[in-house]
Specification:
Blueprint: H1 5-29, H2 34-42, H3 49-56, H4 60-72, E1 76-81, E2 84-92, H5 94-115, H6 120-134
Antiparallel strand pairs: 1-2
Length: 137
C-alpha cells in the first residue's frame, strides 16, 4: 500500500484544525484569537517579533498586529534589550503566562480526547514516529 505524503500532510493539518476549532471558545474566554495564541505561546522561545514571524511562518506585518494586540491586552510587554539598546524584546506578563498555560491546557485536553480513540500502543508509536520525523537527518 502506497502512502501519499501530501495526503498525510493534509490529514495532519485537518486534525490540528479540528483541535483548534474545538478550543476557540476557550481561547475567546481568555481574550485570545487563535493566531494571537500562537504568538503568545512562542514569545519565550523567540522573544523578538522577527523571530516569531520566522518560527510561525507568519508575515512580519501580521506579527506586529498580534504583538500590538497582546500588549494592549496586558499579556506581553516590550522591554529594551540590554544587549542591543536599539532592539525591543518581548516578555510574557503574569497574565500572559496564565493565559498561555490555560490555552495550552485546553488544547492538550482536546488533543487527549482525540488520542483516547487510539490504543496506548498506537499513541506510543505515534510519538516515536513524530520524534523521528522531527530529528535532524
Amino acid at each position: 500500500m502506497s502512502v501519499d505524503g501530501a495526503q498525510l500532510w493534509t490529514l495532519n493539518q485537518r486534525l490540528l484544525g479540528v483541535v483548534m476549532d474545538a478550543c476557540t471558545g476557550e481561547l475567546a474566554e481568555l481574550g485570545l484569537e487563535t493566531k494571537e495564541f500562537f504568538v503568545l505561546a512562542e514569545v519565550e522561545a523567540s522573544p523578538y517579533p522577527a523571530e516569531i514571524a520566522t518560527a510561525l511562518l507568519l508575515p512580519k506585518a501580521s506579527v506586529t498586529v498580534y504583538v500590538r494586540n497582546l500588549v494592549a491586552k496586558g499579556f506581553i510587554r516590550r522591554e529594551i534589550d540590554d544587549a542591543d539598546l536599539r532592539r525591543h524584546r518581548l516578555v510574557l506578563t503574569a497574565e500572559g503566562t496564565e493565559a498561555r498555560d490555560r490555552a495550552l491546557a485546553a488544547l492538550a485536553a482536546e488533543y487527549d480526547r482525540r488520542l483516547a480513540r487510539i490504543t496506548p500502543r498506537d499513541r506510543a508509536e505515534l510519538q516515536r514516529i513524530l520524534q523521528e520525523m522531527l530529528s535532524p537527518a
